Amino acid sequence: IAVLCFPEFRLAVVQLHVTSVKADNLSRARGLVKEAAGRGSQLVLLPECFNSPYGTGFFSQYAERIPGESTQLLSETAKENQVYLVGGSIPEEDGGKLYNSCTVFGPDGELILKHRKIHLFDIDVPGKIRFQESETLTPGDRLSTFQTPFCKVGVGICYDMRFAELAQLYSRSGCQLLVYPGAFNMTTGPAHWELLQRARALDNQLYVATASPARDEASSYVAWGHSSVVNPWGEVISKAGPEEAVIYADVDLQYLADIRQQIPVTAQRRDDLYAVTSLPGAAS
Ligand SMILES: O=C(O)CCC(=O)C(=O)O
């Protein structure tokens, strides 16, 4: 029996310019995914809150059930272009509660995963930024991974990236790529956005990809932009500026295996001294 092996595949990140017009966000997302697929991408990533402006005042107005208008479009777009589509996130309404939810569709258009952001973005940096997602959102309670013919992928949304344990659990479950749709801001963006991605990639010796909305100085929440892909050596191999763009990276799983062999921290971990474990009910 021939064993199919895909040591390399192309990833695209769509840094969409998100506006207050949902239909416009959806149609431009569709067009940019098509562009990415046309350039050979097999997995495409959209930003956090790609169908709605980001802000607690917008979530209920733009929220949808899943399935709904936006996820129907994602399903069709994945199928039309024969790609794995990580649909950024949308405000989801379910049972009277709101979630920040990422859906993933396969090349056949089937929904293969829904990740509800598990760490809500509640911070207060005096004089800079106060944001309380928990004023309107409910956190998810499950870890989220999915399989592709290329590799296993772990999913987090934005603030989820600050939690090293989540990335470590994904890595230990066999993920070789972590994707984080995110919308950092003009305070934490320059300080932490790239550092966190490189940290998660280096800690776990895997690829990390992030997708931000493009920066819009006129919006109430100004996203940092700079969607990126980082390799298992901790290097940024692809990075957008602040404006709308599609960026590309070739994920090389042989390179990942080489790094893990050269610096074998995984095998050197002292499991007899410490452990990071998920608890019953948390697994995807
Ligand atoms: O962690 C941060 O600094 C930003 C997080 C964020 O914007 C989010 O979770 O949506």
SSE topology:
Elements: E1 8-15, H1 22-38, E2 43-45, H2 56-62, H3 69-81, E3 84-86, E4 90-94, E5 97-105, E6 111-116, E7 122-125, E8 129-132, E9 145-147, E10 152-155, H4 164-172, E11 175-181, H5 188-204, E12 207-211, E13 228-230, E14 236-239, E15 245-252, H6 253-262, H7 265-268
Parallel strand pairs: 1-2, 2-3, 10-11, 11-12
Antiparallel strand pairs: 1-15, 3-5, 4-5, 5-6, 7-8, 9-10, 12-13, 13-14
Helix pairs in contact: 1-3, 4-5
Bound molecules: 2-oxoglutaric acid (AKG).
2-oxoglutaric acid (AKG) is lined by residues 48, 121, 158-159, 162, 183-185, 188, 192.
In words, what does this structure look like?
Helices cover 27% and strands 27% of the residues. By secondary structure, it is α/β, with parallel strands linked by helices. It has one domain: 4-Layer Sandwich (Nitrilase/N-carbamoyl-D-aminoacid amidohydrolase), CATH 3.60.110. Strands 1, 2, 3, 4, 5, 6 and 15 form a seven-stranded mixed β-sheet that branches. Strands 9-10-11-12-13-14 form a six-stranded mixed β-sheet, covered by helices on one side. Helix 4 (164-172) packs parallel to helix 5. The longest helix is centred in the first third of the chain and has 17 residues, at 22-38. It is globular, with a radius of gyration of 18 Å. The two termini are 30 Å apart. It binds 2-oxoglutaric acid (AKG). Residues 48, 121, 158-159, 162, 183-185, 188, 192 line the site of 2-oxoglutaric acid. GO terms for molecular function: omega-amidase activity. Its EC number is 3.5.1.3. InterPro entries: C-N_Hydrolase, C-N_Hydrolase_sf, Nit1/2_C-N_Hydrolase.
